[in-house]
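Bug report

Summary: structure tokens for DNA mismatch repair protein MutS differ between web form and batch submission.
Environment: batch mode, default settings.
Steps: 1) Submit the sequence below via batch. 2) Compare with the web form result.

Sequence submitted:
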Amino acid sequence: MLEQYLRFKEENPDALLFFRMGDFYELFFEDAEIVARSVQIALTSRNPKDDNPIPMCGVPHHSVEPYLAKLLEQGFKIAICDQIEDPKQAKGLVQRAVTRVLTPGTVVEDSSLKAKQHNYLAALYWDSSKGCGGVAWVDFSTGEWSGLHSKKEPDLWQWAAKIAPSELLLAQGRTVPSQYGDLSAQVTSVAPGAYFDFNRGSERVCQSQGVSSLDTVDLENKPELVRCCGALLLYLEQTQKGDFNHLGEFKPLNPGKHLLLDEVTEKNLEIFRRLDGRSGKGTLWRVLDRTMTPMGGRLLETRLRQPWRDSRPVIETQDVVSALFERDALRADVRRELDTVYDMERLSTRVFLGRAVPKDFIALRTSLTSLPRLRVLLADSDAADVAALGKVLRQWDDMEDLSSLLHKALVDSPPPVITDGGLFRTGYDGELDELIELTEHGEARLQDLLEQEKKACGIPKIKLGFNKVFGYYLEISKSYQGDIPEHFIRRQTLVNSERYITPELKELEEKLLSASEKRKSLEYALFQKLREVLADARSRFLFMAGVVAALDYWQSLAEAARINDWSRPELHDGMEIDIESGRHPVVEDATGAANYIPNNVQIDANRRILLITGPNMAGKSTVLRQVAIMVIMAQIGAFVPARNARIGMVDRVFSRVGASDNLAQGQSTFMVEMMETARILRQATSRSLVILDEIGRGTSTFDGLALAWAVVEELARRARGGIRTLFATHYHELTSLEGHIEGLRNLNIAVKEWKGDIVFLRKLVPGAADRSYGIEVARLAGVPRPVVERARELLAQLEEKSQDGSGVGAHQVCQTLLPGMAPESAPADSVQEHPVLGVIADLDVDAMTPLQALTMLGKLKKLL
């Protein structure tokens, strides 16, 4: 057995080998030590009395999933080695084979997946000689896959970072660029010759899609993308060890149809994760997510990553959201029914792959039960007149045939394991009914036979018994002196009784003893037939899963809008963005609507660049982000947190917000800031929206001011009239650009002074801020009082020196105030000597007694 184990381990050296032995999966040697430590189970040993015992651990096969999930989460690969023949029929060693290799990007079990998030396996390839590349990704748990072909390598890495794959296949020797270092942990290096071969990739893609030409799936002139698709398919072949024809139609991504959000913008706007890296509360996704099904949650994730650029699908979505927004009772009923729908996509995948357990079939049955009720709810409402909803209803499939089959076939609470029996209802199969009768009512059949014999032969005290040697028998006491029926066959003589069998009793015994095994075998066969029926209907399951996802997505947006008092934005193809009483949805969700001060923002031909000044903590960044977030919300079809909003469609949103570094890759805060700024200036178009916060703060004052100034000029110069920009800054000098740069307008966040304190009004008003209030903010932050008072004193002197009309700059002002900073070139007589310095210079320290020194110290103190 160990030789067999080692052979499979040699074939899978980079995976933990789970080796099936009876009711357990066992691990040995180093694998056992790793697993025992990683999932906290007992480490034992085989042959413990030997000088070199073999480390061993194991887990029950029926409860292995939680352990597998923990190991996958830690990044391990796992080879599952199963018994492929019945141990009862095996002669010698049971035949085994590795039936599947589990990796983070290829799992389909719920225990290893997040319900409302995709789980992508990706592959990226760049051909530097041709200047072309591709990136492809597949969610194996749903069968959805797509990809992107590009002549810009940074675009490929941006998309790879955006989709956040659980695994990323790269050719050996390829490394992740430093700015995308977070992807390094997900990289699986593969041989480029085998995985990224174009000819083999073409064959695999055509075979997978059932087509004869790459042109059919829009891959004719995208060889690098074909290589990536081929790599994905080969990896799946090697890990799944069987058919995986559940993959859907490959649909190359067309970036021109979507508002593009790079990974930096997603991070800065906290769409999926907060700036501290945590997900959940504090993100836009969390505020918007009122979905009731996993499919709806994943559709919301997709829409947020890829908002529409064309207004047509946005308006269609808005129409349905409006209809559900206005009908609270209908929306509540729809939400109640959706709550009983399980993950039809992933359930049908497990059924198709033969990995579904009985509870998966019950979940599908429950889901199908809700479909007719959902259709009736929608069809009976006046919301059915809305175009998108009407189209859905016309294509609706209740799937009543499959629902009826599952209800007829399966019991309500089946056992967890298929081979245990007890899966099917009586009445589903005649042969099975007889076996169920025997296994569940066998004792009653025996008692009936006993009563028949008593009546037939007139012997009232016949007893029924059983032992392992003779099986069932009839026992008659020796006190009985009458005749024994001829069909009674003597089997055993005891002191006080005789034991007999009859042909009928023997026949019934054989049926009873074999009924349990026959029942399990028959139920297993019936279950496989049922699985095949459902697997053949996978396309129907996927279609209705898509319908349910869309319905869930629409009601989620309507529910979020109703709860948060949002309004429907008006979309147009112009450049104007006009927001009345806008709020930041995530901040408002955290602080409460009553504590949030709304603001108006207007961008048009005369106000293309809004320069926003004001102190720290006043809310400049919040205003910037809320405008960008409202644009994204509008272009996924959602309502927005504003009284009214008119939004000109945007092709890209760029953000440069906050201070961050990437020290592991040798990038300082200022370097990261400049890299992000460079990306914006190179990629922004006339239809983009740019938000910039505190450009140039990471370097010296004059360097930073010069950079910020130049960036503003470039944004104003680009795209024949300037790019729509919100630019927050502490450099008040930039406010003088209003009137000199066309389309630039000054705004500030209002602050009020009250009895020596400052009050942040959080209100965006026209004009430039007159002060930064940095010292007041420092006091509010808890900086010690002496430091605050000294800072105020220095600020007054700096302001006095800088405003005395002498034309002296900030650097020269500091030189006159800070000790030791006078210029070396200054004439000696230009520095006025303090009287104490002259006294000290005349002292003969070596000739002074301690008392004289103490007396002199007192005099110096008085002079000071």
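Above is the batch result. After comparison, the two runs are identical; trailing whitespace caused the diff. The first strand starts at residue 16 and ends at 21. Residues 503-536 form the longest helix (34 residues).
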